[in-house]
Each structure stands twice: as C-alpha cells, then as structure tokens.
Amino acid sequence: MHGSSSHGAGGAARRGPPGAGCLAALLAAAPGWAAQAEGPADAQARPWLDASRSFEERAAALVAAMTLEEKAAQMQNAAPAIERLGVPAYDWWNEALHGVARAGQATVFPQAIGLAATFDVPLMGQVARAIGDEARAKHHAFAREGRRGRYQGLTFWSPNINIFRDPRWGRGQETYGEDPFLTARMGVAFVRGLQGEDEPAPANAQGQRYRKLDATAKHFAVHSGPEADRHHFDARPDRRDLYETYLPAFEALVKEGNVAAVMGAYNRVHGESASASRFLLQDVLRRDWGFSGYVVSDCWAIVDVWKHHRIVATREQAAALAVRNGTELECGSEYGTLPEAVRQGLIDEAEIDAALTRLFTARMRLGMFDPPEALSWAQLLPSVNQAPEHDALALAAARKSIVLLKNDGLLPLSRDIRRIAVIGPTADDPMALLGNYYGTPADPVTILRGIREALPQAEVLYARGADLVEGREDPGAAPLIEPQYLRPAPGARERGLRGEYFRNRDLAGEPALVRVDPQIGFRWDRGSPTDNLLARGDAEAHQAIPADGFSIRWSGQLLPPVSGQYRIEVAADDGFRLYLDGRLVLDRWQDSDRMQAASVRLPLEGGRAYDLRLEMYDHERDAAVRLGWELPGARPPFEAALEAARQAEVVVFVGGLTGDVEGEEMRVDYPGFSGGDRTDIRLPAPQQRLLEALHATGKPVVLVLTAGSALGIDWAQQHLPAILMAWYPGQRGGNAVADVLFGDYNPAGRLPVTFYSAEEKLPAFDDYRMEGRTYRYFDGRPLYPFGHGLSYTRFGYSGLALGQARVGVDEPLRVAVTVRNEGTRAGEEVVQLYLAPTRPGQLRARRELRGFQRVHLAPGEARELVFELRPVRDLRRYDEAAGGWTVAPGEYEVQVGASSADIRVRGRFTVVR
To answer: Which residues form a coiled coil (predicted)?
Structure first.
C-alpha cells in the first residue's frame, strides 16, 4: 500500500547526524534520561528504566511504586510529574486531524473531508507519515525546552472516523465521509502512517517495536450531532445500523490499523455513556475485536455521566463506572476522585493498577523512558516542520481533493484572459483554507492569491461582495489599516502602534514585551502564540506571553489621509475595546469562542492626528485580533462586486462556509446555523443574492465552494456553467484551485458525501436510524451523488470479468475491468466497485462500496484493474435475531463505474455455502 519512495518526511536528508554532539543535545528530550544514564544500579532500584525488560513489565513496576493518589493523577490527561520516581509531567492531549494542530507552525493539509475526496489511500499514508515526522520533531523540541504540556506530546486524538450521516453536522468536516468502507480504508492508512507501522522501527531487548506516535480512533461510537445535544442525548440505532454503519471503521482501525487508542463519545448509546459503556468498551472493543490499547474519554465526558446523563449520582461513582467499564484515561479531572471511590468500595485498587499499566505501557512503547539514541525518530530536526517536500505534498493533496461538480465547457479557463474578477467572502480569507483543528501555516495561499500568481500578466479585480452569512459582520471585511496611517507617538518617524504585551488578561502590571507593530492583524493558534496568517513570524511574542490568558494594549495616533466618513472595524477572538481621542467607540469586552467583529462609522479630518488605543485579551484557545477601516468614498461591497464583474471577461465567485460557522459546539448562531451545525443546507442568503446578481450581468461565472459539508446549490447547478468543490484545501489551496481553473491540473476528486437538493426533506437530525440517509439508503434523486466528480477528459469502461460464476462464502472472487482514457488530455479516474443485492433481504443497502482505485491514464491509454472480493467480508449483514453476522446465499451484482449513480459495467455471481 505504501511504497518506500513515497515516504516524504523520514529520509536521511533531514535527520540529524549520529555524532555525539547531536545526541548530547537530544538527551534532554527524553523523560527519565538522566536516571537512565546513572547505570545498572539505578535500573535495579527503578526497574521501569531497565530497557532489557518488556514494556509491560516496566509499566507494571512503575505503577507498583506509586501511591493511590499518584495513580489517580496519572489517569487524567494532564498528568503531573512524580519527581521521586523520575516521572516527568505529561499531557496526553494532542491533535493531528490534517496536520499537527495547535502547536505553532506546521504543514496544514486539506481538511479530513478533503483528504477523503481524493479517494487515494497511498496519498493518505504519505500525508500521515509527514504529519508524524513533524509531530516527533515538535515533541523533542518542546522537551528540550522543558515543555511537556498540552499539544506537546506524542499521543494524538486523531482521526475522527464517525460516519457523516447528515449534512447538517458541523463536525462532519473532520470525518472521511458517509461511507463505512471509504472511512475504513482512509482511516487505516492514516493510522498506520501516523504510528509508523510501515516504517523501519527500533525494537527493545524483547523484540517489541517502539511506536512513532499514538493515533486515536474517535468518537466511539454512534456520534454525529447535533452538537447542541451531545452531552445528554441517547443514540438508539437498531443493531443492524450499529454493526453495519457505525462500527465497521472502528473495527478496521483496531484489526488492520493497530490503532493505539480509542476515544469514547459524549452521548449515550442505548442508555450507557459511550465513554463508560460496558457493551461498547468491553463486549465489542476488547472481547469481540481483541483491542489491546487504551481508551480515553472525550473531554469532560465523565462529568456528563453523572451531571447530564444522570446514570449515577456522584463524581466518584462516575469515575469508578468509567474505569471498570474500560476507560483507562480521562480527559478531565473526575478521575481525581478515584481514591475516594476506592475508599467507598466502588472500585478496587487492582482495577486502577490494570488500567494505569496499560497507559504506562503505551508511554514505554513511545520511548518516553528511554534515552533518545534508542529512537531514530528522536533525531528528526525542527526543520522538518513546513519542509519544502511537505509543502509540495500539501499542494498535491489539495489538487487531488478538488471535485469538479459541473462543467459545461467553460473550464479550463484560458490563460489569455486579460481581466478576471474574483469575488466572494472566502476568496481571500485564510480561514477558508483551514477548517478546524489546524496548525499555523507559514505561508498560506488564499484562492485570490493563487489566481493572481497563476495570471501574472492579467488584471485580477477583487471584491468581497457579501458577508459569509446573514447577521454576521465578517471579521476581515475591512482592509487592515496600513502602517503609513499609524504612528506610535506624536512626532514619531516610526510607523505602526506601540504594543504592550501582558502575561495576564487584565492589562495589569509591567508588560512582558513592548514593541511597535506596523499593523494589527494577528492570528495565534492554541499551542503557542505564533504570528499571523497575514504578516511576519512572531517568536518574540511566543517567548514573552503565554498561550492563553494574555492581553495587549496598542496605542499611538491614527492619521487619516482625507476627510470624510470612515468605517473602523475591530475583530478579535475574545474581548476588545477601541478608544479614539479618549472616547470609547467600540466595546466587546467578553469571551468568545470565535472571532467577533464590530465597527463604527466616524467623520474624520484628513491631516489631523487622532489618539488611538486598542485593547484586547485572550481567554483560552485560539487568539486573533485585527484593526481595519474603509476609507471615505468606498463603494458598498455589493456594488463594488457587480462593478468588478461588469469590467471582467469572466467571474470566479468563491464562497460557501468556513470553520467560523460550522464546527464543534459553537456558542454563536446565525440564520441557517445553530451551535456549529446547520439548520439549512442552502448557500447562505447573502452569497446567494450576490451570486444571482453576478449571473445577471451576463458574464460567465465559475462557482468555487469552500466548505466541509454538502451544500444544496440547486440554483447554481441550473444556471452556472461550472462549479468546483474545494473543501477546506489547506495551506496551498489557492494554488491548487488555480491549477484546476486554468488546466494545469485535471481534477479527479470524488464526493465522499451525497449532495442533496436544497428542497430535500431530510430525516430528523437526532434520529440515528440510517433509513433515508446517505447513498446506501436514500431513495430520492441527489443533486450530486456519492462518488461524483468530473474530469477534463473522458473515460470508458469495458471487459468486466469475474473469476468465477459461483463462489463460496470464504473464497476470493477476482473482478477485472478495463478502463480507457478516451479523451485528448491525461487525467485520473477513480474507479469504484459496488456490490448490490438482486433480491430483498440479501443486503439492507441499495448498494455498498467495496473497492476503489485512483488511476492515471494518458490519452488513449487503457489499463486492466483488478479487485478481490470475499463474500464473508464484503457481503456480510448483521442478523439481529441470531445476534451475529451472516451471508445470505444467492445471486449478487457487481457494479463498476465513476460514481454510485454512474455505473458503467455490471456482472453477476452466485454465493454458495
């Protein structure tokens, strides 16, 4: 599956030399290395440092040396140091959904749903290996600085393999789509790549392989919204849906991916908390699947067990229930009550010992208690982060993820265009590249920038035109105030504002950093403040202020160039205040989990200096702030967009969604959006109005969508000549979109979700039955079917051949098909194989994806593709009466084609017992 030549991040060219100087510098990166270096006597006193023992023996010895209180503390994600035992502090919480997240600069690949749209399993493995290299390098760099906090470890809570059953779910963008088979294939590749399963790995004296990183399959299980209800609802799918839809990807990651960890969900499943479920964690995960790793709760899900689900009455009972039922690690603090739970007789200390031994076995396997020379991964240098080959891989992944939904011949656009209009709220918004759970890209390329770089000789007109959604003043609608209009003090020659950075959220005491900032346009990610999707690197602020709980005051003078009415805008993630000439003109001094914006219109005199003071604070999580304005005479955005369109030969409208309106349990609602989910799958109303007005100009309009979920774009499908789905395409998304628009890349992405008509009446969001959902059970006509995606060339299918007409339940069946590029342009085709019943009762689904291959073909080239099926695996259905899997004998149909609704060739075979 993974060729060694595709391993982008682990080559010798970027590993440090094996000399003594390099290793000495790296020794400080290894927890426990000093004690390890003391020699054999210390290994006898501390057997957990004895590398000649097995990981399990070392872990058990360490747990046996702890007090009950120490054990309980180590079973929480923010595990404190135990100095007397040489155990350093460690926080298990880290994220790597589509790149190392929340830990400073890192390569940002397309969001998970975009990676799924590539239908490219080997590519997914390459991406995961690159992420793994960056993660290892970051961890050791942090450790050398003595930093062992959140987002700095080796245990990653990715991937999200929940089934994207409903397009309204805000977190669906984190998944690999609606199909269990596709999710399993992409998820297994991600896990194996992240954990280094297919790389050469060092081993201990017992021959046990060390592990590069721990991946975590989440959220187990039956979890896909609504976000607002996730802490208290009870998902009750029937057994067939549970086993045939919600569990298969988890089973594949356990059995084929060797995934290190599984994360529980917030909700109940048939009355049990998913993070404390005996059925899920004991009966299914361990007994049926043989899982040998560890289980972590979702964050603060154990609180829900007693507080919201009311399964038990106390914190102690909730903690004891979760541990006894199989959750070894808590993200949260309820496990701090475990000593009292032991005293109350709710749980035995031996059960705690067994759970904690699993956790320390995992840490031993990651090499946390060995000197770094034992691990080749510890020699990865910080320069691996944002390495050129990773940037190139991000571009390749973005190109492969783009889905051409419609093309009436307008695309690819000619490079002879002299004037093109790029319009829309996500055209120049870096957030439209990122989705959620992201790191900080060093040089993100927006779609506007990508088009400008692709057409250096053309005039590229840009207008935002409309806000993202109704009722939301978009942060970023006003251009940043440029340095020449700001000065830090009266008479100062330097340009910008004086910034005072405080290590608290109250602007109190002496500032930790004072400097002049030319512009106020910052976005710091969660792991460490690192500047800015817009300006320069900010190592200075990174060192001076904490990741959370800081504040900044900027002061100086504003120098308007002309007299007239100005609109001054401030946007920030958390609170801000703006003063002009000592008067408070904007005040949003409150916590916010997303960017909040406010603006004021003021008459200002050109040539006069106004005293300006901007204050902001960050509470937690991501932090951002920007100060912008619109000068007098600026045309309203809508009118400016129409004027640009009238002047252009062609219009590229870039719109859709961003992670600011769809995502995880948000506290902001807009028309069509609620708590991060959507209540309406249409394109937001401000964008729809603008799109229709642009079309009315008579100029050809290409629609480029950024989003993490399906959109009901019926009007666009009926009226526009070309539509691209770009997802959240990562740091090189703008270049990738431009490459497709102008024909430098022939698109071949496929939809991992069904696009429904805007008028389709969807099943109730909180109903977890699969009836009427996804291509497998939907009987209506989709706007765009699962697996859909067009090309700039044509492909023909022929010669379907089955290895035999009759096959035993456990026998392999060979399926061959010939695919030919019948056009004049090279391109890729995603060949999809489905199995379908020929009579009722054989399968519940209308058809099931059971194979896919992405193949590149030159013009006129043909290739035979071979798939291997096995009825016991590919035709099994869950028999509720028997309580197990069965395969119904009889005739079935093989369907091969370009999408779930574009079947080109068919064949039948019979399953016999």
So the answer is: none
- DSSP label at residue 15: B
Claim to verify: residue 768 and residue 807 sit in the same structural domain: no
Q: Read off the pLDDT of each residue in 257-272 and give the average, rounded to a whole number.
A: 97
Instruction: Note whether 566 and 647 are same-domain residues.
Output: no
For helices 349-365 and 55-64, angle between their N-to-C axes, nearest 10 degrees: 130
Tokens of 266: 């917030």
DSSP character at residue 76: B
| Confidence check: pLDDT of 815 > 60 | yes
DSSP-based three-state secondary structure for 63: helix
Q: Is residue 531 part of a domain?
A: no
Give the pLDDT confidence score for residue 506 in this predicted structure. Answer: 96
Is it the case that residue 48 has pLDDT exceeding 80?
yes
Query: How far is Cα 489 from Cα 558, in angstroms, rounded to an integer?
Result: 10
Q: Which of 134, 178, 227, 298 is catalytic?
A: 298
In this structure, are strands 650-656 and 419-423 parallel, antiparallel, or unpaired? parallel
Strand locations in 426-512 (E): 459-463, 486-487, 497-502
Assess contact for 246 and 283: CB atoms under 8 A.
no
- Residue 347 falls within a domain, yes or no? yes
Question: Per the confidence metrics, is the pTM higher than 0.85?
Answer: yes
How would you label 599-634 residue by residue, b for 16+ Cβ within 10 Å and e otherwise?
A: beeeebeeeeeeebbbbbbbbebbbbbbbbbbbeee
Instruction: Give yes or no: residues 435 and 582 share one domain.
Output: no
119 and 188 together in one domain: yes
Task: Determine contact, residues 842/892, Cβ cutoff 8 Å.
Answer: yes
In the chain, how many domains are there? Answer: 4
Secondary structure of residue 678 in the 3-state scheme:
strand
Catalytic site residue 649? no
Provide the pLDDT confidence category of residue 777 given band limits of 50, 70 and 90: very high
**Which of these three, 620, 653, 671, is where a domain ends?**
620
pLDDT tens, residue by residue, 552-575: 999 999 999 999 999 999 999 899
Looking at residue 25, which CATH number applies to its domain? 3.20.20.300
pLDDT tens column, 607-628 = 999 999 999 999 876 788 999 9
CB atoms < 10 A from the CB of 666, how many?
A: 22
User: Could you tell me the residue range of the domain that residue 882 belongs to?
Assistant: 795-912
Whether pLDDT at 709 is above 60: yes
662 as an active site residue: the answer is yes
* Token code pair at residue 436: 């959620």
At 306, phi and psi to the nearest 5?
-100, -30
Residue 759 lies in a domain: yes
Which one-letter DSSP state was computed for residue 684? P
The CATH number of the domain holding residue 504 is: 2.60.120.380
Query: What is the arithmetic mean of pLDDT over 318-346?
Result: 98
CA distance 210 to 132: 14
Q: Which segments of 518-641 are extended strands (E)?
A: 521-524, 551-558, 564-573, 576-580, 583-588, 595-604, 610-617, 623-630
Summarize pLDDT for 93-129 with one digit per residue, the tens: 999 999 999 888 899 999 999 999 999 999 999 999 9
For 513, list phi and psi in degrees, rounded to 5. -150, 135
Dihedral through CA 36, CA 42, CA 48, CA 54, nearest 10?
A: 80
User: Which residue among 662, 677, 760, 829 is the active-site one?
Assistant: 662
**Model confidence pLDDT, tens digit, residues 509-539:** 999 999 999 999 887 754 333 333 333 335 5
Q: For residues 481 and 520, is the Cβ–Cβ distance under 8 A? A: yes
Distance CA 496, CA 519 (A): 6
Are 844 and 865 in contact by the 8 Å Cβ rule? The answer is no
